[in-house]
Amino acid sequence: MEMERRGYLQAGGFIPEVVLEHPEMVQGLHKEFIHAGTDVVEAFTYYGHREKLRAIGREDDLEKLNRTALKIAREVANETGTLMAGGLCCTTVYEEDNLETHDKVRSMFKEQVEWAAEEGADYIIAETIHSYGEAKLALEAIQQHGKGIPAVVTLSCLIPDETMDGVPIAEACRKLEEAGAAVVGLNCGRGPSTMIPALREIRKACNGPIAALPVTYRTKEDCRTWHSLKDPDTGKDVYPRNLACVMSSRDDIRECAEEAKAIGVNYIGLCCGNSPFYFRELAEVYAPTCLIPDETADGVPIAEACRKLEEAGADVVGLYCGRGPSTMLPALREIRKACNVCN
Predict the structure, then answer these.
(1) 272: domain range?
(2) 342 labelled as ligand-binding?
(3) Among 190, 198, 337, 338, which lies 20 to 30 A Cα-Cα from 230?
(4) What confidence score (pLDDT) does residue 326 get?
């Protein structure tokens, strides 16, 4: 969605052609989110699977697009000391009662998993999966072709709290966890206020880490998903082109992060509508468990760097930007111990 807002994707289609046409933009956006606090770089392959590229006449670019996205993500992760994840998503062809579609889905997942493993992914995310059956196929593909790479599987919960093939969401997550997923949970579909209740049930059902990545839109009980939201002035549907009027506030996102943390959500992020300023809210709430070291980009501990600059003659040393109040204060305490001048 952020790429669409910047004019590099088409609303509705969201096919990541930008990976091939403007790779520098993809690299830059990865770095913006790292600066905002993320510790994972996910390759920009959402809707970059065979079916979507075939639909726009670019199936021949399938492997090139995926490998390019993975290489960009790996390069940024290496540069910044973060993790790199490969990605799978709903195929749009899965049908519960049509076994031919199951074979097609397996093949689509297999090739993307193999490319992710070959390009050095630390783990693979299967996201925005609407059916338990398709989620199970994604998990199996990662287990069979991912060379031991861990799997994160997140379902998209729509109006009822169940998958499209009728499995209660909490039960589906429990089954995926039992089948070997390292992390299970929810992404997309719902905004902060309507995802939280389902997360509580998932937390009760699962023993391991659970994930929450809501969309950044003001869903509510009578409009649980972002697809069903209306313009508050006109009453017209806003998905997918006119979502600006129902965007979450920063406080909405921070409150969601605080609730998720209290519930016991271990893996936090945002889905459609995300932007670095939103992600900063998550990072500040989850900062004690985020991989954000108290050191400079060239590996010098912050307090030591400030002390050295003071000894070299700086009248004032300290910190600027990068962190919010709650995450800057601990580092400032260490700087105060190390330095004699103003900071």
Answers:
(1) 1-286
(2) no
(3) 198
(4) 56
